[in-house]
Design a protein that fits this description.
- The structure is a single chain.
- The chain is mainly beta and 361 residues long.
- It folds into four domains: 4-95, Golgi alpha-mannosidase II (Immunoglobulin-like, Sandwich); 103-186, Immunoglobulin-like (Sandwich), CATH 2.60.40; 191-262 and 335-360, Immunoglobulin-like (Sandwich); 265-318, no CATH class.
- It contains two helices and 29 strands.
- It has helices at residues 269-290, 297-318, and strands at residues 4-6, 12-18, 21-28, 34-42, 50-57, 64-69, 71-73, 77-84, 88-95, 103-107, 110-114, 118-120, 122-126, 133-137, 140-141, 143-144, 148-150, 155-157, 163-171, 178-186, 191-195, 199-202, 207-216, 221-229, 235-240, 243-247, 251-259, 337-347, 350-360.
- β17 and β18 (155-157) form a beta hairpin.
- α1 (269-290) runs antiparallel to α2 (297-318).
């Protein structure tokens, strides 16, 4: 619609702007006729250049009508020239063009969707046989990954980050005509994971337990699986339950870490000594059984020395002497040290972690 009208002084001009057209009123309050008067309308909009003129003068109380043609002028104006008699009121009506006018409408005019989701838009073009449109997002033809993309059919795909964007359909027949829709991209529903404690110290063979809390954001409704990583050798780590269903309220799970007591090789050495002595004693017993009952004095001394050598040899072997001794057995159980455990909760593409430091003495 028009934004202003200009008439020369001393005439008085005013304008009315409606959805159906432009209406202008010119008053000549003087006793003089104004011939060849130029009247201009700035930014008239999509109105007809053929105006209906209505004239009422002091000398003729009957309203007369006629058609006045406006022509395009420089700077987006319509202008005409006419004569305004003394003491006369002149009115113009320039109706909106309803045929042959390009117009673009969109649906929906606004949308809210989550990151990574899609929304279909439609564009309707009237006033021309060419109903094609081009699509853009925030002024970028076709959009991009940061603002979201839109296909030639009007399917908008939201970006990976939340934000607000404008989707626009522009007429191919008349690129000055377009329609837009506001799009709000929100974050996907998610959950959080936290641990009741962050560290503990235990001895090998003991068990430590702590809880983890899982809290859903509004709209999140899904199953979250729990698993444990980074726990010490010769130990176990498990969550109970190992999966929870979140839907509106928080849930907890108990994580248990069970270690294994250590057994040292030194603790086995006394048993090896006893076994060696028993073997030597057995050899001596066999010797007594098999030796002659009557043995001369010199032979008896040699015999005792031999038996004593056998016993010493058995004791030496039982204590680990000699090059043929087997290696000590390895130490078993959970090794001492500090370990960082990671509890992971996962649901689809969403995953969160909580760390726990465990010191084993």
């Amino acid at each position: 619609m028009a934004v202003s009208v200009s008439v020369p002084s001393p005439l008085i001009g005013t304008a009315f702007y409606t959805n159906s057209g432009n209406a202008l009123l010119v008053v000549n309050p003087t006793a003089n006729d104004f011939a060849g008067l130029t009247i201009s309308i700035q930014r008239p909009g999509d109105v007809s250049s053929h105006a209906n003129l209505y004239l009422l003068s002091s000398t003729n109380p009957t309203i007369t009508t006629e058609t006045v043609n406006f022509s395009a002028a420089t700077g987006n104006q319509l202008s005409t020239s006419l004569t305004v008699p003394a003491f006369t009121v002149v009115a113009f009506a320039l109706p909106v063009i309803t045929s042959g006018r390009v117009n673009v409408t969109m649906g929906p005019t606004s949308a809210t969707l989550q990151v990574g989701h899609s929304q279909a838009f439609t564009a309707t073009v009237t006033g021309t046989g060419n109903t094609a449109v081009t699509w853009s997002v925030d002024g970028i033809p076709g959009g991009n990954t940061g603002k979201g993309t839109i296909s030639s059919s009007g399917m908008y795909s939201a970006p990976a980050t939340p934000g607000s964007h404008i989707v626009t359909a522009t007429s191919v027949a008349d690129p000055t005509k377009s329609a837009s829709a506001a799009v709000i991209v929100t974050a996907a529903p998610d959950f959080s994971l936290s641990s009741s404690v962050s560290a503990a110290t235990i001895s090998a063979g003991e068990t430590v337990k702590f809880t983890v809390a899982l809290t859903p954001s509004p709209g999140f409704s899904n199953t979250v699986s729990l698993n444990c990583a980074g726990f010490p050798p010769q130990s176990t780590c498990a969550a109970s339950p190992n999966s929870v269903v979140l839907s509106g309220t928080s849930k907890t799970a108990t994580v248990s870490i069970t270690t294994t007591a250590r057994t040292s090789a030194a603790s086995l050495m006394p048993f090896r000594g006893i076994l060696g002595l028993l073997g030597a004693a057995a050899m001596f017993g066999v010797f007594l059984v098999c030796a002659p009952i009557r043995i001369a004095g010199q032979s008896r001394r040699v015999l005792l020395i031999a038996v004593l050598g056998i016993l010493v040899s058995g004791f030496w072997t039982s204590c680990g002497g000699g090059s043929s001794s087997p290696p000590p057995p390895p130490i078993t159980g959970t090794p001492a040290g500090t370990y960082t455990l990671t509890i992971t909760g996962s649901s689809g593409s969403a995953a969160h972690t909580a760390n726990f430091n465990l010191k084993v003495n």
